[in-house]
Amino acid sequence: MDTAHTETVQPLAGQVAVVTGAGRGIGAAIARKLARLGATAVLCGRTQATLDSTARSILDAGGKAEVIPCDVTILHQLEYAATRVDSTFGRVDILVNNAGVAGFNDALHNLLPDDWDRILNTNLRGVFFTIRAFAPIMIRAYYGHIVNISSLAGKNALPNGAAYAASKWGLNGLTYSVAEELRVHNIRVAAICPGSTETELSPHAGKDPRKMLQPEDIAHAVAMLVTQAPQSFVSEILLRPTQKP
Q1: Is 164 noted as a catalytic residue in this protein?
Q2: How many structural domains compose the chain?
Q3: DSSP H helical segments within the chain, as ranges?
Q4: Which is catalytic among the residues 142, 143, 164, 176?
């Protein structure tokens, strides 16, 4: 079937999708993909200018977007965002926890405690805060998808990136546990674990960017999750480049 024709059907028409870290890279690609499928993309992140850029690209393509600047490490900002989404749209159908920071340069015994806190607070506690803020809206509606963008570093050893790996291993455990808590409310929770992806998150020294995953690959996986049949759900996707970069 023709892909362009498939997207004009807009299976997510009328739905509201909240995407964190939506200003660039993977988050921006996910927001654009969900908007093409008909959802109103609510763009969350720390930088107004990059969020506005993503929103313009969605609006220019005929989609719908709303910008709400917020920091996932600050609970009251997420609570404000959730209240604003609820008052504006009355629903949240999709929540994509994409916001994250990297740290691949130091052995753990050399890592500064502030860097540990920065990585864990964003990549793990930030997801807890976001789910805490938005899940009640989904529970009320007895419907929703939560997709957490993890990493293959949450499955494998990552020398000189132990804090990042710990945050993603923790995120995987959080995802599987929350999935069990929320499935009784007809809310499906899944993790996507991509391998090497060409983004600004890290330099990926020595790797060929032409062979790496692209942000659009992760966006495609998100679209698969949120358009699957209602009687089942894919709880985890491991996403690797076809050729090792």
Answers
A1: yes
A2: 1
A3: 3-8, 25-36, 48-60, 75-89, 113-120, 126-141, 162-182, 215-226
A4: 164
